[in-house]
């Protein structure tokens, strides 16, 4: 039996497997894992021998520590089907989104489906391609159980993957989810040719929006200012490696975007917009991204309506 299993063999699950192979054997499970030793979602990376590839969920879930590297909108149905195999384990979520139906982050979905599990979140600024190439990366490992947090931090750190510990699970996971929404907005700004000054404004006001919602939902403001919030927001709003940013850029230019690409911020913008209404919170950027992503507004109208809101204090 291997110590660590990763469920989800997309770009991120595979990259984490490559990184953790530095510490020993890792099992990588995927429903579509028939591509040999190179994942087409992570081209140019040959998987080391320490990674055991499998599509057998029963054997993969024998490990005590299981990382869930599925997209946020796929997690609920996966848990509905497979929670009995996962309950009682240490479950580390890496998904960056808010479930559109339940309006909660992955940690709550997991805790509800697996009430005897220890739930943690691994998040922060990290492109799969960077991690897989062994580039230095710093992440946040958040867990409400301090002893488990210390153990997971040690187990999942490597010489080039440095994990910082937190007990603010809500803050860590909301930072990762909400930055994707703002990254789409930043992409729209750049795609539409509004310039770098406008992007800085979107990042800053987006951060204010992220903090407003997250603290309302129980997060600590300093968590939002850490790797999982501001750190990831900075990365994703400024790099064309980001799928959320590129999706926004395509919207800004009025171009098509490959619908098979995982763009977590699109559904999460709708979830955030719904949360804003439900909790009576002002979330203008998220609401606009939700509209744009569904084709419900033009970029020109979106920019005008954000710029002509009533003037207020910062
Ligand atoms: N790619 C990155 O750089 C990166 C970095 C940090 C975090 N993340 C997060 O990791 C999560 C996964 O992203 P990714 O980049 O690996 O996506 P991806 O598009 O590369 O892969 C998604 C994988 O999930 C699988 N999948 C989807 N629905 C499934 C289901 N119901 N059952 C089983 N498997 C299912 C797909 O088959 C695919 O292998 C996202 O929440 C993303 O935000 C990604
Ligand atoms: O490519 P994105 O936009 O999904 O971003 C990947 C990671 O979340 C960056 O930390």
From TrEMBL:
The residues that the entry says bind NAD(+) are: 8-13, 128, 243
Residue span(s) of domain Glycerol-3-phosphate dehydrogenase NAD-dependent N-terminal: 4-148
Q: In which pathway does it act?
A: Membrane lipid metabolism; glycerophospholipid metabolism
Kindly state one GO CC term assigned in the UniProt record: cytosol
What processes does the entry annotate via GO biological process terms?
carbohydrate metabolic process; glycerol-3-phosphate biosynthetic process; glycerol-3-phosphate catabolic process; glycerophospholipid metabolic process; phospholipid biosynthetic process
Keywords (A to Z) from UniProt: Cytoplasm, Lipid biosynthesis, Lipid metabolism, NAD, NADP, Nucleotide-binding, Oxidoreductase, Phospholipid biosynthesis, Phospholipid metabolism
Residues at which NADPH binds: 12, 31, 96, 128, 243, 264
Enzyme Commission code? 1.1.1.94
Catalytic activities: sn-glycerol 3-phosphate + NAD(+) = dihydroxyacetone phosphate + NADH + H(+); sn-glycerol 3-phosphate + NADP(+) = dihydroxyacetone phosphate + NADPH + H(+)
From the UniProt record, which GO molecular function terms apply? glycerol-3-phosphate dehydrogenase [NAD(P)+] activity; NAD binding
Instruction: Describe the location of the Glycerol-3-phosphate dehydrogenase NAD-dependent C-terminal domain by residue ranges.
Output: 168-303
Q: Which domain of life is it from?
A: Bacteria
Q: Which InterPro entries match?
A: 6-PGluconate_DH-like_C_sf, 6PGD_dom2, G3P_DH_NAD-dep, G3P_DH_NAD-dep_C, G3P_DH_NAD-dep_N, NAD(P)-bd_dom_sf
* Binding sites annotated in the UniProt record for sn-glycerol 3-phosphate: 96, 124, 126, 179, 232, 242-244
- Top enzyme class, one word, equals oxidoreductase
Q: Which residues form the active site?
A: 179 (proton acceptor)
- List locations, semicolon-separated: Cytoplasm
Q: Where does substrate bind?
A: 96, 243-244
**So what family is this one in?**
Belongs to the NAD-dependent glycerol-3-phosphate dehydrogenase family.
Q: HAMAP family this protein is in?
A: NAD_Glyc3P_dehydrog
Function, as annotated, reads: Catalyzes the reduction of the glycolytic intermediate dihydroxyacetone phosphate (DHAP) to sn-glycerol 3-phosphate (G3P), the key precursor for phospholipid synthesis.
Under PANTHER family, the record lists: GLYCEROL-3-PHOSPHATE DEHYDROGENASE (PTHR11728), GLYCEROL-3-PHOSPHATE DEHYDROGENASE [NAD(+)] 2, CHLOROPLASTIC (PTHR11728:SF1)
Q: What is this protein called?
A: Glycerol-3-phosphate dehydrogenase [NAD(P)+]
